[in-house]
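Why does residue order matter? Because the sequence determines the fold. Keep that principle in mind as you read this record.
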Amino acid sequence: MSALPQDEAGRSHGTHPAHRGSIHLEEGAVVAQETWPGDQFVLRVSAPKCAKAALPGSFVHLTCDPDVPMRRPLSIQRVNAAEGWIEILYKVVGPGLRALSRRRVGDTISVLGPIGQPFRPDPSKPRSLLVGGGVGIPPMVFLAEWMSARSIDGKVGPWKPLVLMGSEIPFPFKPRPSTILVPGIPAGSIAAMPLLDGWGVPSRLASKAGFAGCYDGFVTQLADEWLGSLDAAAKRDVEVFSCGPTPMLEAMAKVAAKHDVPCQVSLEEFMACAVGGCAGCTVKVNTPDGPAMKRVCVDGPVFDSRAVFA
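Structure:
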């Protein structure tokens, strides 16, 4: 049975009523808004209640602009409970997010969150493989930071994450050669996310766009190569976590099944209410009682890959 993440007060978020009780509505000010190539933005907004309750895999529902009535669901990339902010990476794909990209420091944004069931890392499987593609990168950064910050009896926590990221547009950070050796990664694949390197978390980047130092291929292929380098005993310690476009998640589920390792996936889906009322984000999920329609917003977004991609 996988361990369930808990908030700082020790409360688990394993049931819908408990989770819904942790959703907050806040008016927060924009703290920072960074612009990156490919119409990508990193937004930091004050939301102290959300920052305190958020767990890796949860998301927020934001107002983009006073003139845009519909909120947008966006994954959380980082939180700082002490300073009271959350951070979000997003790519402009429509007028709503275009309006969000024009918000400036000091502007007010309505934040509804955190929403959704989080990842559930198993302490008995310390070799954590985190695989993010495109705008699926944020939950992997959040999970990596969560894992690296955890400790048991004052010792370094059980998880030793490896983060693999894929993108066909420039990454929303300045890659640099990693300072951390990762056995099983093909020679020449040395590009990494500096933030993760600074935490002591190894990372590698994949792209078919020819970016320097990146693995030449899909991130799921890089994951397949790394898993293939492990022996049977090492694989028993592996658990995979992934977020990205549905085709990428389906490919990652197949890779995990090939190597017989558990895999949790965070699904991307269009949402209206994002709190389980409209049922507009339902997906078919296999359960012990047979197929069922589950809401990505509150029943997910995290599911066992075998239940979604059987």
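The CA atoms of residues 191 and 213 lie 5 Å apart.
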